[in-house]
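Researcher: Batch entry, complex prediction.
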Amino acid sequence: MSERTRPSDYGAESARIVRDDPGMRTSITGAVRSKDEKRQAAWAQIDAGAWRDWARDVKTHVLTHLDRYLEEAEDALLRNGVTVHWAETAAQACDVVARIAADHDARRVVKAKSMLTEEIGLNESLEGAGLEVRETDLGEYIIQLLDEPPSHIVGPSLHRSLEDCRQLFHERFGTPLDASPEALAATARRILRNDFLEADLGVSGANFLAADTGTIALIENEGNIRISTSIPPVHVAMVGIEKLVPRFEDLAGLIQLTARSATGQGIGNYVSLIQGPRRPGERDGPDEVHVVFVDNGRTRLLADEHAWEVLRCVRCGACLNTCPVYRQTGGHAYGWAYSGPIGAILAPGILGLEAAMPLPFASSLCGACAEVCPVRIPIPELLVYWRERAVEEGLTPTVDGVAMKSWAALAEHPGAFALASDLVGALPLERTGRKLPVLRGWMGERAAPVPSPERFLSTSSGKEEST
Amino acid sequence: MPYSDAATAHLPDEPGGDTPTRPSHVAFFATCLADRFFADACADAVRLLEHLGVSVDVPPGQTCCGQPAYNAGHRAEAARMARQTATVFAGTDQVVLPSGSCAGMVRSFYPALLGDAADGGAPGLAQRTHELSSFLVHQLGVLGPNWRDQTGDPPRIGSGLDGVSVVYHHGCHALRELGVRDEPVALLRACGADVVPWGGDTECCGFGGLFSTKFPEVSSGMADRKLDALPPDIDFVTSADGGCLLQLSGRARHLAKTERSPAVGPEPTAGAAPGFIHVATLLRRGLGA
Amino acid sequence: MSPRNRILGYVRGATASRPRVPHPGRFDGRFLVGDDRPPMERFAEQFTAAGGEVERFVDTEAAVRWLGEFTRGYESVTVGATVPGRLRPALPSTCPDLAPLGVSAAVAAVAETGSLVLDARDGRRTQLLAPTHVVFVREQDIHQTLVGAMVTLQPDLPSALGLHSGPSKSADIGQILVRGVHGPGRIVAAVIREAGPV
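Model: Structure tokens for the complex:
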């Protein structure tokens, strides 16, 4: 297994990627700009403001009644013949799946793309228990072959070019080095078709779960999710507790808005609406369906008076696609399953604030993300909120706190502030800047700012000139 | 924060237009960054306001709006600076700033930071604080009431920028917190400037206050995207935010020195790379003030 | 205490003092950007724009004749359980994972999204595994909106419904669109206006 970075590596990783891997930035930027343009076009076809208000309100309604909806969903699932499990931690969630696998003597698992399973490290856990796990989404399959983490919530292999894929498939499967994308896809289809047919267990996530009918909704374009949840005899759906939706009919709006926001499509090419195992009279379908409700920090987020709004997220990736910081590095620099703006505000809840550092600071607070979030999560406000918490908990460098307190003290004493400002003007910044704290970061990449010969306030000082 | 549509703070604000009569007197908040690094732009802002018939007071004791502290999560320090600012500007008329990000700070965050301060403190201050170009268009009405509906060339207010070609960088706070977007561009055009389209003009320059020093490589990469997209043969890159100009010009000069990229210089000369200049300076020139 | 009860306990504690927000109501026609064309037309436009094919038939006879032509060149077929007898091709039946062609009957379609609604009762493998997929649907079963279709289908849900809105596709290989990655690379929506007796 390759070295995975962690959020704490963001500073070094982002610097390395920007400096040494310009191809990454180019691929990522091209890909996300295309997605963002498609989203814009798709939003222009609808009353996007009204759709977003509705989606925000549906999700907020669920979150403010979540216990009721979880119980209602459980009842519906049980009525449908689904087995319901609950897992508080990532480890527990992995154990549940391992136990289900053991109960069925399962050896082979096929997986539909699921960010939650990345978050809890399910693949590693199952492989550790001796199971063979095959990712079936083409992008996930590619990064599985490369043993890399996903670089984007919706397009995990975004950072890999056609050339990279040709090289990979040539090495693994002997396809020609100039194979067309169609030929590569056909190769993957053939290999994975066997895996589908021989799998003992299919694992998926869930985009949404309707509480009244117990419906698991899954959105995709390839068909691997429909197949993984239809052919293996056992289907396990991993469902974050925030994925609940009140009613079956609510799925219509959320599915459409998510698709438009993620890829600009009116709807994902395949949508699965699953009510449970195969029924008498049905020719096929799994004999057993399990739902695992996963907490893993979500209740902690829910209890937070500010951060709970992040739980509205529908995992569309629109914020990543518009983020000027994300496109500099792609997802790998963030060091965990969710990258970009949503990753930065989710991490403190799921991983804990200390483990999430410095992600809440890895943003220029430009606000582009908030403009595109389909459920109107106030991402910049939440970034600032987590920064405040980081300061309160002593997770930021001491020198920052000292500098800020000094600055505030100066600001309260205008005479002293003016003196300090004059001093800054007198310093030979170009020469000495590299040695100063804070400024040092500036100097490596930019020329020192040139102060005006005299400050405005020292010349005007409240005097008016007659007009 | 109770459940609230906080995200709309980032949707276009309908700037101003609340004053029933045209203001004849304003208080000027230089802001610490412009005071130190764009003193000429501050003076230009004052002169152009006076030229337009507005008398300008520069209240003593003004220091910093507190935004760097606020954005870095140092809320207590930000509140202290906000209190100082609110005290200095208590009871003044409209307050004008040559900075979108500082105006955004006051308008968007002072009310929550300062709570229900008495003496018409924060709530009143937030509502009567304006970024310069927004003030000119919405409070002074220099472009007339239907300036947005104009097809073709906007009505002229000056000719000092005839033959001058510029690109406009939209600072993120002006754009998304204040909803100021078309105002500065329209003002420049109304003075004769050719405001040239620039791909990525609304994309963040990478300054982000302390972000630029914490993650300098990423920050510079963001500046590079902007600089790489600059159209050829323009005279100036301009903006309502000094921080953005320091970031872009600093990066441009660094690249020129290290010969890594299209050379851009601090001052315009014929046939050379563009200069980086505050919009207040251009508008003063444009109005002939 | 079980994980279930602990989790529910945390949830209750977390939401106890927060103001409750009501459900905003059905996601309804008020959100549609005005398009008053008949459902058949919208469906055809959406489905073909996504790379699907649409064939229209005045009645079942016409569909049967077309099917005869279409299936020339196929050696075997897998047919869904709910496909009416007359629309079952005169070809040897084979396992869904070996068949070059799958024929299904949809319970409904959606115009605004260009989607066929497929029911597990018809047979999921038939709908998913063959590289070419023909789906019969009655024109009267095309709903204008997705929410309308879902409200209609809700009283009688099978183990799974699948909304299929075009051929299987992916852009994961260098951002280049390819079809038929896992699901059928070719899908034909065969719409019959006057279905007649089954």
